[in-house]
Amino acid sequence: MKTAIPCYYHLEVEISSESVDRVRRILAAHLRHWGLGILVEPVCRCAGVLLRAIETHGTDKNTVVEMWWTGQHLITAVSDNERDLPHPHFGPEGYLAQIAALSDGWGNYPATNGKIIWFSHRARAADGALLAPAPPAPDLRSACQAPREVPVAGVGAPEEVEAVPAAVTADASAQRADESCPRMVERSTASDPMPRTVPAV
């Protein structure tokens, strides 16, 4: 998480239909301040369940809400001045069943002037700690086909050579070969009007 310093918050409030939502907003603000925004939804829902039960069935509406952050667990406790749990707390759809479903652990015990119901949540991740997938490693085929850079030691930069087409190179070679072989031309006479070329011996 963002902080491992133990934190504590204490709130005394008289429960009414308007104050339940206000207490939930206060708890959410403190959780975000502690860097525990990931726990806002389950903690506020559990606290809201208990505060609604006190609003509906409690004769004394004075309530104390406490939160402890240990660095790994967040413990929230709601205490009131009624020693007995009202009947809607029990059963498969009761308040305690909802607390058990929304938290990692819970319990209740009698206090000096009433009872305390607590629940805990384990912080599993920090805010914004998104896991980026690691890039896949190249397979053997792509790794073998990767070109390798071979350093070449040179005194200076190589001279630029203009590319010459192969046909032009072949014609120039043939012309040089013809020039190296002299040809004798016999002049024509009156009886043989066509000149004849005699190959050099």
Q: What's the total helix number?
A: 5
Secondary-structure class: alpha+beta
Residues in β-strands, percent: 15-25%
Indicate the radius of gyration in whole angstroms. 47 Å
Q: Gap between N and C termini, in Å?
A: 101 Å
Give me the strand/helix succession: EHHEEHEEHHEE
Largest sheet, order of strands side by side? Answer: 1-2-3-5-4
Q: What's the story with the biggest beta sheet?
A: 5 strands, antiparallel
State the share of residues found in helices, binned by percent.
25-40%
Please explain how this structure is put together.
The structure is a single chain. By secondary structure, the protein is α+β, with helices and mostly antiparallel strands. The protein is 31% helix and 22% strand. It has five helices and seven strands. The chain has a five-stranded antiparallel β-sheet, covered by helices on one side. Strand 2 and strand 3 form a beta hairpin. The longest helix is centred in the N-terminal third of the chain and has 18 residues, at 40-57. It starts with 6 loop residues before the first strand and ends with a strand. Residues 125-132 and 184-191 have low confidence and may be disordered.
